[in-house]
Amino acid sequence: MGFRVKITGGNDVSFDETIITAVNFISDTPDTSNARSTDLSVILKITGRINFSLGAAVTDSTVELANWALMPSDKADCYRNVQVQVVSGGQIVRQYTYPNAFVMDYIEDLNDEEGVGTFTILLKQKKDLTSKIELKGNFEAS
User: Fold this and answer.
1) Average of per-residue pLDDT values in the chain
2) What is the pTM (predicted TM-score) of this model?
3) What is the mean pLDDT of residues 55-66?
4) For residue 97, with 0-12 CB atoms within 10 Å meaning exposed, 13-18 middle and 19 or more buried, which class applies?
5) Quick check: 96 and 25 in contact, CB under 8 A?
6) What is the CATH number of domain 2-140?
7) 3-state secondary structure (DSSP) of residue 44
8) Would you state the pLDDT for residue 52?
9) What residues contact residue 90 under an 8 Å CB cut-off, 6+ apart?
10) pLDDT tier, 8 (very low <50, low <70, confident <90, very high otherwise)
11) Of 12, 33, 38, 54, which one's alpha carbon is 20 to 30 angstroms from that of 114?
12) Helix/strand/coil for 64
């Protein structure tokens, strides 16, 4: 199984199966609720490798993720379109689309032993546009 991520609406970035190592889809309601709450948060947690490239032979798109995380809320492109595809056997088996996602947390984990860093980005859909999230599955084989 692999993952592809495409982020558009600013400086576009894409990650393929060689970079993304895990994706978590999280639907979160308040823990204090005694009934189905209208206060729903929908979150994507994406984890991957940071492949540093000496001499800029390959673009390190995680720099754009870090810059997006630093963007203030008064900038229009602090909200971006995020599409995640889950791929199995060369076929897309699930696709998540968040049309108005923003960065909740961005973490880079670097150490001098492995030589490859990891990143984790926590994205949330803008609350008043939660109904715009698309979750697709059951794709036909091509």
Assistant:
1) 88
2) 0.88
3) 76
4) middle
5) yes
6) 2.30.110.20
7) strand
8) 72
9) none
10) very high
11) 12
12) helix
Q: Which residues of 53-89 are buried (b: 16+ CB within 10 A; e: fewer)?
A: eeeeeeeebbeebbebbebeeeeeebbbebbbbbbee
Q: How far apart, in whole angstroms, are the C-alpha atoms of residue 16 and residue 92?
A: 13
127, two tokens:
């609350």
Token pair, residue 89, equals 């056997």
Contact (Cβ atoms closer than 8 angstroms) between residue 58 and residue 50: no
- The pLDDT score that the predictor gives to residue 28 is 84
The DSSP secondary-structure symbol of 73 reads: T
Q: Which phi and psi (to 5°) does residue 67 adopt?
A: -65, -40
Beta bridge partners of 63: none
Written as six digits, the tokens of 104 are 């909740």
Q: Assess whether pLDDT exceeds 80 at residue 142.
A: no
| pLDDT (0 to 100) of residue 21 | 96
Domain boundaries, the chain: 2-140
138 — alpha (psi -120 to 50), left (phi > 0) or beta? Answer: left
At residue 131, what is the residue type? S
